[in-house]
Amino acid sequence: MSSVRIHVWVADQHDRESQRSLINTMLSDPRLHGAGISLQPTPQASDTMGPGFEVIQLVVDSGFQIATLALAFVTWRRDCDRAAELVVRLDDTTRTLSGQELLDVPAAVRALSGQPDPSRSCCVLVGVSRYPHLGDLPAVEQNCVDLAGALVDPGIWGVPWENCRMVLNPQTPRDLLTPVGEAATAAEDTLLVYFSGHGMCDADGRELHLCLSGATQPAAEAAATVPWRDLRTILRAGRAKHRVVILDCCYSGLAIGERDPSAGLLEAARADGIYTLTAASKHSPALAPRSARHTAFTGEIISALREPRTRAEFTTLDDLYRTVRDALIPHQPEPQREGPPHVGALPYFRVPRSADPVEAAAAPGREDLPMPKRRRLFLWAAPPALTAVAATVVAVALWPSGPQGPCSADTRLVGFSDDLDKVQYGGTTVGGLSALTMTAPSEAVSLTDNSPPRLYHLTLGGDPRHVGVKGMTTLVRSDGSHFQDREFDGEGLVLQPHHVLISSETEPSIVRFDRRSGRQNGALDVPPLYRVKSGGGEGPAENFESLTATSNGRLLYAGLEEPLWRDGKVRGQPLLRILRYSGMADQGYTPDGQYGYKADTGLNLVDMVALEDDVLLTLERGYMDGVGNAIRVYRTTLGKRWGIGWDNSLRNVEEQDFAAKTLLVDLAACPAGGARAREAQPNPLLQNVEGMALGPVTSADRRMLYLISDDNLSHLQTTRVYRLDIPLSGTPEKAP
Fold it and tell me: Checking DSSP bridges between strand 122-127 and strand 164-168, what pairing results, if any?
């Protein structure tokens, strides 16, 4: 096995103290005991160093991981009082690591290896699976989901989830090109664009057209395809240092163009600087095996990223191409590539390993090592900009332990607790908590969405160890009998002096229960429009997810999680309705209006808290298999109110008539601290948050906000309670 020599020294030759501390750290690091460490006078290229300046030499085999060295450097930087720079000479390559790059392990790995920076990169994954005229491609949607999961995986590349946007079944060229243009503007390091769907050539057989859902063969409507030249023009105009395109469609080799096969990649790269991988040549179809999870080409890409057959620490784009090509030929169309050689040689993707030093930095006992900050581009669904509000936070029964820190310029995570996760109470397993409402400054009630429905009475004390259950109320029918499985699916919760109002997804309904006995004793009228199934046709909508009331009890709001069939989505954004009732607490309510609400792409409305008559907090949640959750809280001002009889489609509503949203917190941007996740998450702090409630006032114009997650009684999910300090200027609601 060949050996590799690595030389390391502090950049400032006069900083002897930092050099000595680096030597001591590396000699005592058990991870480097097999690295053959010795001290040398100087490396050959360092003739500027004064006499006696010792340089560290490591002699390692080819299986040594750069991440192990990076972890040792970050450990040293953590203990060093000075932001000293390091110089690392690896064979013939010399790199300088700044003090900033030594703050966390992934940044140090990128600096040592030359890996493109995922935090400054953007991905757009376009998938078209529905083709009425050409034949559906059901595997395409799973292509996008699983490839996105690999790209955002910190153990592979680690693009922030909000920088990775999926565009599924675009209807017009603008639907496809606009997200690519936005990403091309935002990406600074790498812009990666992926397309999977049908492809066709023009009448002359010279130009590739990417087919949208309405495409026919031959193409009769220009609006139903996107010429490759249009996409290439946007890519060229972007500011990204590197541009990568992956095309999984028939005749995708046309994107590479005409060239002499013996000319090599350099000549082709001069054309546009785009590194392109295609599923087939310009004359060949791409294959989508029937009943397979992925198409042939994308399936091999995902396999090469997730289960690479190599001892190398990184996979380059050229490596990826060769692996996929060798797996497909001779029985499948041969993939093609073209692009700048230096881009193809970049170490883009880390090879997942069972004992990953980067993951070890976040393992128990290593919480003190700083992890990378999240860059907030929000290309998945760009929310409005935050308005900075300067305020002094005053501690009010704060949780002193656990992670604390800013989530944004004016929102702070105070702490979280997992103490409710799978806890036993009264012969039940606490879980499936889908709503939360405060009853006192440190007490709350939470609703389960499983059968039989229950209200758990919670204590939220000053210490996470004291978060627990102090009581339970089982909700029953009016005759005292239990609800049957799936008969009642409680999601939203409003407490009144003598009653409890709960919105149920089944039917849908808003049911009233006696607060003391838990017996059903009434229900609110639901307009006929809301009884229409969201997917079309008659039947239960399974849609009433959120419920809230104003502090005076005169107005009640019920929110839909998913669109009614007549509303649908626009560019991936669900067009939702919020139903308003007027009346008095404990006396009854009558529906008197409805509003339009546009959720972020890939997210749904799952809870609301009324601040004023027309101002709400809204909680949006999304989930992608293999990627995890997105959780965002907005301050929302309701827009135009229509009468109950208004049954037009929200597709016909002007933008200014929808509710206006201002982002308060994106939970993914909060510090992860010691949080653990049992399934893939962009930030281990994230869970399936479904409920929220306003807590006490912390200072002028600031309130405590509690969030609670629904574990679905799954061993892969966690019941987690979060406490955040948020700005709420002009909020008249009384504190509990």
Answer: parallel
Q: Please, what is the Cα angle at 337 between 334 and 341, to 5 degrees?
A: 145
Alpha helices in 642-711 (DSSP H): none
CA 637 to chain centre: 25
How many CA atoms does the CB half-sphere of 510 hold within 13 Å?
30
Whole-number pLDDT of residue 268: 44
Tell me the C-alpha distance between 345 and 610, whole Å.
Answer: 54
* C-alpha–C-alpha distance, residues 226 and 539, integer Å: 39
Domain ranges (residues) in the chain:
3-113, 118-350, 430-727
CATH topology assigned to domain 430-727: Tachylectin-2; Chain A (2.115.10)
Distances (CA, A) of 569 to 59, 128, 148, 651, 727: 58, 16, 21, 8, 31
How many residues are recorded in the chain? 736
Contacts of 73 (CB under 8 A, 6+ apart): 86, 97, 102, 108
Task: In whole angstroms, give the CA distance from residue 462 to residue 141.
Answer: 46
Q: Is 298 exposed, middle or buried (0-12, 13-18, 19+ CB in 10 A)?
A: buried
SS3 3: strand
CA dist 655 → 23, 426, 476, 631, 651 (Å):
62, 50, 43, 24, 10
Q: What angle do CA 486, 488, 476 make, to 5 degrees?
A: 120
CATH 3.40.50.2000 fits 118-350, yes or no: no
Domain 3-113 class in CATH? alpha beta
Which comes out higher in pLDDT, residue 146 or 661? 661
Contacts of 147 (CB under 8 A, 6+ apart): 125, 194, 298, 301, 302
Query: With the CA atoms of 708, 709, 710 and 715 taken in that order, what torsion angle do they form, in degrees rounded to the nearest 10?
Result: -130
| pLDDT value at 80 more than 60 | yes
pTM: 0.51
Distance (Å, whole) CA 244 – CA 138: 25
Distance CA 621, CA 685 (A): 14
What SS3 state is found at 107?
A: helix
Q: Each residue of 449-468: pLDDT tens digit?
A: 887 899 999 998 765 446 89
Query: Hey, what are 702's tokens?
Result: 């600031």
The span from the CA of 177 to the CA of 189, in Å, is 20
Q: Which of 88-92, 264-268, 540-544, 709-713 has the lowest mean pLDDT?
A: 264-268
For residue 395, pLDDT over 90 is answered with no
In the numeric block, which tokens belong to residue 717? 């999910």
Q: What is the DSSP secondary structure assignment for residue 678, as one 8-state letter?
A: S
Phi, psi of 86 (to 5 degrees): -115, 145
- Three-state secondary structure string covering 21-88: HHHHHHHHCHHHCCCCCEEECCCCCCCCCCCCCCEEEEEEECCCCHHHHHHHHHHHHHHCCCCCCEEE
118-350 and 430-727 agree in CATH topology: no
